[in-house]
Design goal:
The protein is 40% helix and 14% strand. It has 14 helices and twelve strands. A seven-stranded mixed beta sheet has the order 2-8-7-6-5-3-4, with helices on both faces. Strands 9-10-12 form a three-stranded antiparallel beta sheet. A two-stranded parallel ribbon has the order 1-11. Strand 3, helix 4 and strand 4 form a beta-alpha-beta unit. Helix 2 runs parallel beside helix 9 and helix 10 runs parallel beside helix 14. The N and C termini lie far apart (46 Å).
């Protein structure tokens, strides 16, 4: 097992978070105890912590094909996204920002906050598969456009965006391009040079690392204003004593994810294809969501007619199967997913969504168990639904 879960639990919610890999925990442990020093200090404990921090930065940079000085460690994906958007925006008087309509809330809410501060924001539409409308994207640019933020992989339906092409369009107009790659890194190859982006967000807990740590790639020459002021840590872009155990764990997890990426991608894609085929064969009136080919290998998202996503989630949970109805960051909200609405689903269809995201520790037997349980859960809920037509 890549991580520990409750006995008998089938965990199919890896887009929300992943179990901590035991090899990552082992790499972190010394920095909770013996190697506890502050990396800003010059004595031996401080120098040991600084070496660990430098080695981790080098490892993260290598995994992304970046330079060490281009990696800024943060508390996670949300902070990195906010640093990207506000960091660029604070260099200019209020202007124009472009984001896609299907971004993570960390980007959407930052964009809305900038809108309240006088920035104009265009939310570019997507097609039925969740892919950015290229014509609408190109038409959105203005003379005062300063920044574009479009995610590499969608957290709800797994669709991959043509980020390299979109970044090239932005650069032709002299505009900075940011991508939230939180869902992509560790699942598909991510090379900042091949993508041509100026800013890229990564989070450790999506790739079998610890929670509370991530990074923002900042291409050399891209200027940002910090969000946090203090001792000038992280190239004066993110003050605060660094989370050395978390950063060490992040680097270890990313190294492992890159080293094992090809094998893991084959494994989870095969499981996903089996699961999707089984669902579509066994459950009527189900729509498979996202792009049929250009998607994350472990993501399977569905819209199931006549039932609520939360009810399906709870029904599966009673059988020891953990899934999601969408982004975990929106947990507790009764609003339908903005991603699914942007893709053209009606609110009632979006409410009937289910997201199954597979990981490297999942097995064929677990997929077969899901396919055994899921049709019965849906059938029971439809029997109770006033929306479901009966013959």
């Amino acid at each position: 097992m890549a991580g520990e879960t409750a006995a008998g639990l089938i965990y199919f919610d890896h887009a929300a978070t992943t179990p901590l890999d035991p090899r990552v925990r082992e790499a972190m442990e010394p920095y909770f105890s013996d190697a506890f020093g502050n990396p800003s200090e010059l004595h031996q404990p401080g120098r040991r912590a600084r070496r660990a921090l430098d080695e981790a930065r080098a490892a993260v940079a290598a995994a992304l094909n970046a330079r060490e000085r281009e990696i800024v460690f943060t508390s996670g994906g949300t902070e990195a996204d906010n640093l990207a958007l506000f960091g660029v925006a604070r260099r200019f008087p209020p202007g124009h920002l472009i984001v896609s309509a299907v971004e993570h809330q960390a980007v959407l809410e930052a964009a809305r906050a900038l809108n309240r501060q006088g920035w104009d924001v265009d939310f570019v539409p997507v097609d039925a598969h969740g892919v950015v409308d290229r014509a609408a994207y190109e038409a959105a640019f203005r003379d005062d456009t300063r920044l574009v933020s479009i995610m590499l992989a969608n957290n709800v339906v797994g669709t991959l965006q043509p980020v390299a092409e979109l970044a090239a369009v932005a650069h032709e107009r002299g505009v900075v391009f940011h991508t939230d790659a939180v869902q992509a890194v560790g699942s598909v190859p991510v090379d900042v040079e091949a993508l041509g982006v100026d800013l890229l967000t990564v989070s450790a807990h999506k790739l079998y690392g610890p929670k509370g740590v991530g990074a923002l790639y900042v291409r050399s020459g891209t200027r940002l204003e910090p969000l946090l002021y203090g001792g000038g840590h992280e190239r004066r872009l993110r003050s605060g004593t660094e989370n050395v155990p978390g950063i060490v764990g992040f680097a270890a997890a990313l190294r492992l994810a890159v080293d094992e990426l090809e094998r893991t991608a084959r494994h989870v894609a095969a499981l996903r294809d089996r699961l999707v085929k089984g669902v579509l064969e066994r459950v009527p009136e189900v729509r498979y969501l996202g792009h049929p080919q250009r998607r994350l290998p472990g993501n399977a998202a569905f819209a199931v007619r006549y039932v609520e996503g939360e009810a399906m989630l709870l029904g599966l949970d009673q059988h020891g199967i953990a899934v999601s109805t969408g982004s975990a960051c929106a947990a507790g909200s009764l609003e339908p997913s903005h991603v699914l609405l942007a893709m053209g689903l009606r609110p009632d269809e979006a409410h009937g969504s289910l997201r199954v995201t597979l990981g490297r520790e999942n097995t064929e037997a677990e997929v077969e168990r899901f396919l055994e349980v899921f049709p019965t859960v849906v059938a029971r809920l439809r029997d109770m639904s006033p929306l479901c037509a009966r013959g």
